[in-house]
């Protein structure tokens, strides 16, 4: 089973996504803060994709995405946000965007398709 990092501070959203991802055969490594997400990103745990909520309580999700791009350049990053403001990411960092509210099944199917692509 492939693993993804899910950085989302809202418990209910995280729980629904964990269930939806599990339904498509994807295991979640959960992080409710940016710091927890950074610990996983900087570790040697295998990760097939990274899902980041922009509104984390201790730091901007954009900072988590920047760290992910540095430490895990080949791992797809999915940026989730309810804000309509443009991304504040530096040029060159590529992400897939899912605006909130989104369908948990749509996001989980998208993630599954990303991590199952042949290199």
Structure description:
- This protein is an alpha/beta fold and 119 residues long.
- It is built from 4 helices and 5 strands, in the order βαβαβαββα.
- It has a single domain, classed as Rossmann fold.
- The protein has a 5-stranded parallel sheet, sandwiched between helices.
- Helix 3 links the parallel strand 3 and strand 4.
- The two termini are 17 Å apart.
Blueprint of the fold:
Elements: E1 2-7, H1 11-23, E2 26-31, H2 34-41, E3 49-53, H3 61-71, E4 77-81, E5 96-99, H4 104-115
Parallel strand pairs: 1-2, 1-3, 3-4, 4-5
Helix pairs in contact: 1-4, 2-3
Structural key phrases:
alpha/beta; five-stranded parallel β-sheet; 119 residues; 5 strands; Rossmann fold; 4 helices; globular; single chain
Short description:
This protein has helices at residues 11-23, 34-41, 61-71, 104-115, and strands at residues 2-7, 26-31, 49-53, 77-81, 96-99. It is of the alpha/beta class.
Count of DSSP H/I helices: 4
Main pleated-sheet profile? 5 strands, parallel
Number of strands: 5
Distance between the termini: 17 Å
Query: What portion of residues belong to β-strands?
Result: 15-25%
The chain-level mean pLDDT equals 90
Measured on Cα atoms, how large is the radius of gyration? 13 Å
The proportion of residues forming helix, as a percent range, comes to 25-40%
Order of helices and strands: EHEHEHEEH
Total discrete domains: 1
The secondary structure category is alpha/beta
Question: Which architecture does the CATH hierarchy give at level 2?
Answer: 3-Layer(aba) Sandwich
- CATH structural class: Alpha Beta
Low-confidence stretches: none
